């Protein structure tokens, strides 16, 4: 069905292209060889109607003026050096009266030069159009073939995953109808299943489950830890729970409630203030819950967050890298003891009667699923592109090129890594006498915090908070992924490029680490950085550029951030910067929270519980349209003054948290809005 739609669409496209090309070619031909019509003021050129005469062409062979096809077969035509003259008639241009196609040839006057018929712009529209349509058709077929092979590949993977699950855990196919693969990661494949005993129910009434089939290479300890987290922590406060576990020899499958969700990749650009607020609130609720158990999730990233923007449902999943923190704040490395494992199994057995009872309300889910499928189909048929084009601001090609180059310069600055840096040896302990302790690196590149990149052995739940900050940074800047370094050294460089070298050096020093840096980096202003990416077209619009350029047309650039001085992104800038008042949809509080989540020093980083009390989440700080941000900010400051400032509760009493010395955050003193 989808393929047919695609072919139909391609055929239509090809037809449209053909018609357009035909029109363009006719117009071009007309403009060069205006048609003579009885009403035309121009007389038909002398000899234009002289048909049937034969002239030798350059490079041999003969052509008659009436035989356009023959003429077009010539490979090379020589442009006339002398004035050209219309001498022929052909069937390529439509006659105004008859509608027949005519063609006028331009050639050296055969009477003067004698021998040559030289075609000037030999346009034979139907041949060219035919060629173009062939080309378009060929391209369309290529596209289709690529799509089909992609589909075939994914079908292969789908079938492989289904077969593997059925072969390795045959019990699964006795309990579930397994439909398709819905996701896969480094450690598992996730498949969609429904209960066989619910076959009698209508499709919409059947409950759906996500069956996570662990790769047999996955360490049993890891699987057991994940199971423990899902069983003991999951099921409440936006954390995914577990319905049952099926094991057969080395193979383990977790059965969880299925939740249809939006791909972060598809939505992060269009998330407004309220949606970002809800998303972050839900994420922090999940993290607060996980952290209460002295557990670090360690893999907080958008693909491990199931979020449905239509229903607002939110689930944090994948506890595969979760780690427990011991009473002294160190990470518990030891394997789950036999007693603990047995206790877990006993508890799970005791809760057996509860399993498979909940699950999701299938009715809602199926509706969502269907509408989701529909949206995806529209997207596949170019709906997304059309929408993107419709949203794209208009500008000349040159403007767009300048803007792109400027943005690319900024991205290059963010991604900058000193070429002399040794990726395996970029940080060293300040005290060589101390015995080196193992530091966990578990996590996804781009979401690892400075303490992990600095190889600090004492890591806390603050690791997850940093990752949440990176997600918020992505939504506020509309840039995904924001950090995308290939290794830890480059990842630390990216952090230094945004937060400055001093912050990172201080934190490293506090952790008895020395970062080897050869270059200073100034910290950037998070708000202006996010705005610069999100509102790139505005920041470097030609209007603004013209206003600030010098007499010779050049624009001065800031030496630190390498941006035009009026767009300087440095946190402490001495340049006169362009104000972008009222442009930003996000309130100053959003950036204040962002800076606290992305605090380089883990000891000063905000906790999930504290973050949830941040003013960004209180409704009184909603944006009021029609009033400038600065005015709103001043009004809020006034209100806070009157209320004598909000009372902050003490941080949650986690063992690891006890060691932290947090500076209390005061919401009333964020940077003034740009
Ligand atoms: N309950 C669920 N409902 C719907 N989809 C799910 C569910 N659980 C997982 N998925 C999908 O499967 C994907 C992979 O799941 P998960 O992250 O648990 O596997 P993983 O092997 O640990 O992946 P990774 O290596 O990327 O961390 C998710 O990104 C999600 O799209």
Automatic annotation (TrEMBL):
SUPFAM superfamilies: Protein kinase-like (PK-like). This is non-specific serine/threonine protein kinase. It is an enzyme of class 2 (transferase). Residues 14-66, 422-444 are annotated as: Disordered. ATP binds at residue 212. Keywords: ATP-binding, Cell cycle, Cell division, Kinase, Nucleotide-binding, Serine/threonine-protein kinase, Transferase. It comes from the Eukaryota. The keyword Transmembrane helix does not apply. GO terms for molecular function: ATP binding; protein serine/threonine kinase activity. Coiled coil: none annotated. InterPro entries: Kinase-like_dom_sf (IPR011009), Prot_kinase_dom (IPR000719), Protein_kinase_ATP_BS (IPR017441), Ser/Thr_kinase_AS (IPR008271). Residues 15-27 have a biased composition (Low complexity). Residues 422-431 have a biased composition (Polar residues). Pfam families: Pkinase. The lineage of its organism: Eukaryota, Metazoa, Ecdysozoa, Arthropoda, Hexapoda. GO terms for cellular component: nucleus. Its EC number is 2.7.11.1.
